[in-house]
Design a protein that fits this description.
Layout lengths: L4 H13 L5 H12 L3 H27 L7 H26 L1 H12 L4 H17 L6 H4 L1
Length: 142
């Protein structure tokens, strides 16, 4: 805890200044402390945020919708957000389960870019896949 506390506090401070951008220095600093690639840590942080959002949406859908305490527009927006978040989670699971295929597709999409940029993006995608590795194990996912 003592090793990672400065990274977490830096990330929180960054989030106060610019919401969610504090996660980047958090991942970089924590990666330096534990000798892990920042991309892997960013992947795990991103999925943490998706699950946070899904939990909030589940609360809205389970409590507020049945009580009819929401305007129709808010209800529609919540359902749309739930659908988008679920789609994102499915895409992430597909990326985790079929990483090589997804990276080949990304390479085709990145082909117009300079080789250096495309190579760096591919490298980061592989690191993110490592951070999302817990999703490939049902026990860890639960």
């Amino acid at each position: 805890m003592r090793e990672l506390l400065p990274a977490v506090l830096t990330g929180l401070a960054g989030n106060f200044a610019f919401p969610h951008l504090g996660e980047i220095p958090r991942a970089v600093l924590a990666g330096r402390r534990v000798n892990a690639p920042p991309g892997a840590l960013l992947g795990s942080i991103a999925i943490e945020r998706v699950f946070d959002f899904l939990a909030l949406l589940a609360f809205v859908l389970a409590v507020l919708v049945p009580l009819h305490r929401m305007d129709g527009e808010v209800r529609s927006a919540s359902l749309l957000a739930a659908a988008l978040c679920t789609g994102l989670l499915v895409a992430v699971l597909l990326f985790v389960l079929r990483t090589d295929s997804c990276i080949r597709l990304a390479n085709r999409l990145l082909a117009p870019l300079p080789a250096r940029i495309a190579g760096a993006a591919t490298h980061q995608l592989r690191q993110v896949a490592g951070g999302l590795g817990a999703l490939s194990t049902p026990r860890l996912l639960a």
